[in-house]
Amino acid sequence: MSASPGTGIQDLNLARTFLAVYRSGSFTAAAQLLGISQPTVTTQVKALERQSGRELFARLPRGVAPTPYAHDLAARIAGPLDALLEATGHGPAESGPPAPVHLAGPAELLCLRVLPALAPLVAEGLRLRVTPGLTDPLLDELRAGRHDLVLATTRPRGRTLLATPLADEEFVLVAAPVWADRIGGRVTAEGPGVLHTVPLIAYAEDLPILRRYWRHVFGRRLNCRAAVTLPDLRGVLAAVTAGAGFSVLPRYLCEHELASAALTLLHDPEDPPINTAYVVQRPGPTGNLDVTRVRDTLLRAGPTW
């Protein structure tokens, strides 16, 4: 059997082996998934590299890393090949244990909400490979076939990805009591300008969360530079709680600190900004029923967050 024209792959077995290595991250894991020997996997990958004239994987101390060409190749063949294998009864479920589910999203959401929700599935045998990161790069990697599911903080544009609303998160303006005592209720009475003397702790240099809060709540642009940036909101929370300055955080992340008075609301608007998180996947069959189990479990749990 020949693969689709334009892929450079003359044998579907080579394509199937390539995707198994790509998705599992190692030749050994791919061999277990396919029910063949590791030397056979190595031979088939080398044969595909000769056919394409391109290196597919960089060898690491543990496993392999796809090259840019491998990302592009996976994006082109994964959907059609999964559909063909499923239709002919040769999908992953019949050739060995299911592949791990590759799940990606914001680190704090993964750690505080997602992994606890998926714990029962893991106890039943689910295999997870979790990657934290920012939404835009993760969506690009999803399009390339590197992940099965991405938890995104924005809805992806276009029709190349399917996005299902997962949960809404409310954002709050907070600081430690030491700063709240100095400011008092002046944010509400005088506006956000009173915060210019307080260090700003942010998630990213371009201040996406804070800029949105300023536009939505105060109706103006934020003109301030961050004193500290850290691409993990748990770290932002730790710094703000310790008294480093102020920030805007999802309420779910700091609800314990607010309840214990370790943090104080600096402003309590009637209409706080709300952001929707999405479960995003590529269209078409996944070839791994566990992907559907993970997605459905998260969609059931999301409204309770």
Task: Describe the secondary-structure layout.
Elements: H1 12-24, H2 27-34, H3 38-52, E1 57-59, E2 64-66, H4 68-87, E3 101-105, H5 107-123, E4 128-132, H6 135-143, E5 149-152, E6 162-175, H7 177-183, H8 186-190, E7 201-202, H9 208-218, E8 228-229, H10 233-241, E9 246-250, H11 251-259, E10 264-267, E11 274-281, H12 289-301
Parallel strand pairs: 3-4, 3-5, 7-8
Antiparallel strand pairs: 1-2, 5-11, 6-9, 6-10, 6-11
Q: Helicity level, as a percent range?
A: 40-55%
CATH architecture of the domain at 168-275: 3-Layer(aba) Sandwich
Shape: elongated
Q: What series of H and E elements makes up the topology?
A: HHHEEHEHEHEEHHEHEHEHEEH
- For this structure, the quaternary state is single chain
Strand fraction equals: 15-25%
Please mark out the parts with pLDDT under 50 across 5 or more consecutive residues, or reply none.
1-7
Briefly, what CATH class of the domain at 168-275?
Alpha Beta
The overall strand count is 11
- The name of the CATH superfamily of the domain at 168-275 reads Periplasmic binding protein-like II
**Which structural class is indicated by helix and strand composition?**
alpha/beta
Number of helices: 12
How large is the radius of gyration? 23 Å
What is the residue-averaged pLDDT? Answer: 88
Kindly report how far apart the N and C termini lie.
48 Å
Briefly note the CATH topology name of the domain at 168-275. Answer: D-Maltodextrin-Binding Protein, domain 2
The biggest sheet amounts to: 7 strands, mixed
Briefly, what is this?
The chain is an alpha/beta fold and 305 residues long. It contains twelve helices and eleven strands.
